[in-house]
Amino acid sequence: MAKKDPFTPTAADKFTFGLWTVGNTGRDPFGEPTRSKLDPARIVELLGEVGGVYGVNFHDNDLIPIDATPSEAEQIKRDFRKALRRTGLKVPMATTNLFSDPVFKDGAFTSNDAQVRAYAIQKTMRAMELGVEFGAKIYVFWGGREGTDSNATKDPVQAVRWFREAMNFLCKYNLDRKLGLKFALEAKPNEPRGHIFAPVTGSYLGFISTLDHPEMVGVNPEFAHEQMAGLNFPQVVGEALEAGKLFHVDLNDQEPGRFDQDLRFGSQSYKHAFFLVKLLTDYKYSGPKHFDSHAYRTADYADVKEFARGSMRTYKILESKVAKFNKDRAIQGLLRKIVREDRKLAGLVGKYSRKSAGALLAMDFSRRKLAARPLPYEELDQLAMEVILGVR
Ligand code: DIG
Ligand code: MN
Ligand code: MN
After folding, report:
1. Tell me, what's the pLDDT at 3?
2. Is 225 noted as a catalytic residue in this protein?
3. Are 270 and 388 in contact (CB under 8 A)?
4. Is 59 a catalytic residue?
5. Phi/psi at 3 (5° precision)
6. How far apart are the C-alpha atoms of 325 and 279, rounded to whole Å?
7. DSSP 181
8. Low-confidence residues of the chain: pLDDT under 70
9. Cβ(223) – ligand 1 distance below 6 Å
10. Residue ID of nearest Cα to ligand 1 atom 8
């Protein structure tokens, strides 16, 4: 009996891809498509052929072209539903395309034109219904066009207020229609706008608390987007997890200082990828793991399938390395040594009182002694690297 490959994905991993990811036709700002356009049902079949994929996500217009007639839309939905049934794939997440059509050239929810803002809300309500029709439970908002190319064109204060107005309206629509969606806001610092509003996940973590229904809204951090902003993705996701707001996550990869490459997960920054997988594993993240990425423009569809397989396989390989890290006696010994708790201080600092403030003020801390404490971080990082490099 052939030994089971321990890195074979299953639906239990909740790996998902967007129709637009494996369906990416290779077009870029400097070149025409290198792959034929596949219809949604064929993309679902392709993911079924890859094996181990849990679900497929879509923007409204990935599924139903913006100018489709009602009968064309019904046919597309019938074919898509049949392909989902045949492959067993789910639709965990849906979202709205508020960035492709020229009407959104100056933003959607933050357009300077009230009619465009209203149309964007209307389009999103319809897209929410479409997502729920296929079982989506999470609804992502990525404001690709919400921003400026010149600060002269938009008041950043007003932009936040317009965005909040749209989100409050749509939260109420979600409640009113009992759609049961959880909203996940996705940040990106730039591209396609020179400066996108809410550039990083942290911007949204602050914004959510100002909404009428903050409980309904979380974040969808994307690896490449935070890297584009020069941030440490595992730390970004840690903040979202701690806030109870990690509703979804977009996995891919990125080289520093470049356009949004949406590279295959783990193909560049595998140290950050390792610590991200460690965080999601240690904190038992149970949401979808969405590969919002695409194959190189040079790939044909056979290679696109390899891209999808490689994305999931790398995640599973890193999971096995996290298990090694968490069981490694030398590493765990060092971790126990470097973190020093103090019960007396915890009682003092953990809960303010005049008494505790007085006691703290009266304390004598020996700075020199504290500064002299050994912190074997080189040793620890080397051991971590040896796990990642596969020699431990
Ligand atoms: C880009 O990273 C954005 C769009 O692809 C989509 O709106 C969102 C969902 O993953 N990510
Ligand atoms: Mn991206
Ligand atoms: Mn994304």
Report:
1. 79
2. no
3. yes
4. yes
5. -65, 130
6. 12
7. P
8. 1
9. no
10. 142
Please indicate whether residue 292, judged by its CB atom, sits closer than 6 Å to ligand 1.
Answer: yes
CA–CA separation, 4 and 170 (whole Å) = 46
The residue whose C-alpha atom lies closest to atom 10 belonging to ligand 1 is 292
Farthest CA pair distance, the chain: 78
CA 82 to chain CA centroid, Å, is 28
Phi, psi of 102 (to 5 degrees): -55, -25
Per-residue model confidence as pLDDT tens digits over 9-53: 999 999 999 999 999 999 999 999 999 999 999 999 999 999 999
Residue 250 Cβ contacting ligand 1 at under 6 Å: yes
* Alpha-carbon span 151 to 153, nearest angstrom: 5
Beta bridge partners of 182: 138
Tell which atom from ligand 1 comes closest to the C-alpha of 260.
2
pLDDT digits (tens, 9 = 90+) for 134-178: 999 999 999 999 999 999 999 999 999 999 999 999 999 999 999
Angstrom distance (rounded) from CA 285 to CA 13: 11
Q: What was the pLDDT predicted at 8?
A: 97
What is d(CA 289, CA 279) in angstroms, rounded to the nearest whole number?
A: 13
Question: Which domains occur in the chain, in start order?
Answer: 11-326 (3.20.20.150), 329-388 (no CATH)
DSSP 97-134: --SSSGGGBTBSTT-SSHHHHHHHHHHHHHHHHHHHHT
* Structure tokens, 1: 């009996």
pLDDT of the residue at 339: 92
Please report where in the chains the tokens 């295959």 appear, as a residue.
264
Query: What is the Cα–Cα distance from 239 to 231, expressed in whole angstroms?
Result: 12
Helix (H) or strand (E) holding 195: strand 195-196
For residue 46, give the amino acid letter.
L
What pLDDT score does 4 carry?
83
Residue minimizing CA distance to atom 4 of ligand 1: 142
Helix (H) / strand (E) containing 161: helix 156-176
Which residue shows structure tokens 């006696």?
Answer: 329
- Distance of alpha carbon 50 from alpha carbon 336, whole angstroms: 42
What per-residue confidence (pLDDT) applies to 58?
99
**Residue 273 near residue 318, CB atoms below 8 Å:** yes
CA-closest candidate to residue 103, choices 119, 121, 124, 127: 119
